[in-house]
Design brief:
nine-stranded antiparallel sheet, Immunoglobulin-like, 17 strands
Length: about 300
């Protein structure tokens, strides 16, 4: 019996040793970190230019710590996608070759479809892809690099995909909202409401303001519809002219047109209720009794 226990311990020890060998791989040199695509610090960049064959150039600039598109649209940029573009500067390069010793056409860099320029100091040209590992050839200076292909499709997609999905600029202070059914104005620190509903919730104005400040579209696309008859005007601090939206349609999607900016915001159908109406108060017991003649009893459970 003792010999069997001893054998089991020996076998267990062998298994532990094998596991440690597999996990720690003694004798194997640790993999060296890949060199970065560039040495430029992304935090120092203030302008980005995107040149694409057959499309208008895109110009983006950092203003007061916020990125905006200056051309071909003049609107806040999509923060998530701008961060992804900036991270390209520090992306790992999986291989590096002197492009002067190679045929650019082989890598589709003789006429690159996309060229990025950062502060007019550094440029990177995007060539063809290496499909086996989902990587793309990028030229920086005289070096041909191979990097992850995660950002290319943001650059190659529609220009409006680089715009912010938010309907209003960040940290905006609203001083008036003109809706199809209601008009709200901040006067002497109090909100004045035209056509105020009788069953309005006590915090309806706060809810409406927050709904507009936080509202995000599912997508932003180039304007393709004519302005609708219903118009929304948002007046904000520090800006004399209002931000004007035209309601293009409500179903099956809620679509708002910014005619002055040449874009449309596509939202869910239920967004219309949150953005166009003042919230109603929750029904009370007294309200239910007046409406039905009976007291509504709370449900305590089901058998």
């Amino acid at each position: 019996m003792k010999s069997r226990n001893l054998l089991n311990l020996v076998l267990l020890g062998i298994v532990v040793v094998l596991v440690l060998v597999v996990v720690f791989e003694p004798g194997k040199k640790p993999e060296q970190p890949k060199p970065k695509l560039t040495s430029l610090n992304k935090e120092s960049v203030s302008t980005i230019q995107i040149k694409r064959l057959g499309k208008k150039d895109v110009v983006l600039a950092k203003q007061h710590d916020e990125w905006r598109m200056l051309a071909p649209y003049q609107l806040p940029a999509n923060k998530f996608r701008l961060d992804a573009i900036l991270r390209l500067l520090e992306a790992p390069s999986y291989s590096q070759h002197d492009i002067r010793k190679l045929d650019k056409q082989t890598f589709k860099l003789d006429k690159p479809e996309i060229t990025l320029s950062f502060d007019n100091k550094l440029s990177m040209a995007f060539g063809g892809s290496e499909p086996l590992n989902h990587r793309r050839y990028v030229q920086v200076g005289n070096t041909l690099n191979l990097i992850s292909d995660s950002v290319y499709y943001y650059l190659a997609g529609k220009t409006t995909s680089l715009l912010s999905l938010q309907l209003l600029p960040a940290n905006v202070a609203i001083k008036a909202i003109y809706l199809p059914k209601h008009k709200l104005q901040l006067k002497a620190g109090r909100w004045q409401i035209e056509n105020q509903p009788k069953d309005m919730a006590s915090d309806a104005v706060t809810q409406l303001l927050n709904n507009w400040k936080l509202a995000q579209a599912l997508d932003v696309i180039p304007a393709k519809n004519k302005p609708g008859k219903e118009v929304i005007k948002i007046f904000v601090e520090g800006q004399e002219a209002p931000i004007v939206f035209s309601i293009v349609k409500r179903k099956p999607d809620f679509v708002l047109l910014r005619e002055d900016k040449g874009v449309e915001y596509q939202l869910t159908e239920d967004s219309a209720e949150r953005l166009l109406n003042l919230a109603k108060a929750e029904p009370t017991v007294e309200h239910d009794m007046k409406k039905t003649g009976k007291e509504t009893k709370p449900v305590t459970g089901a058998k």
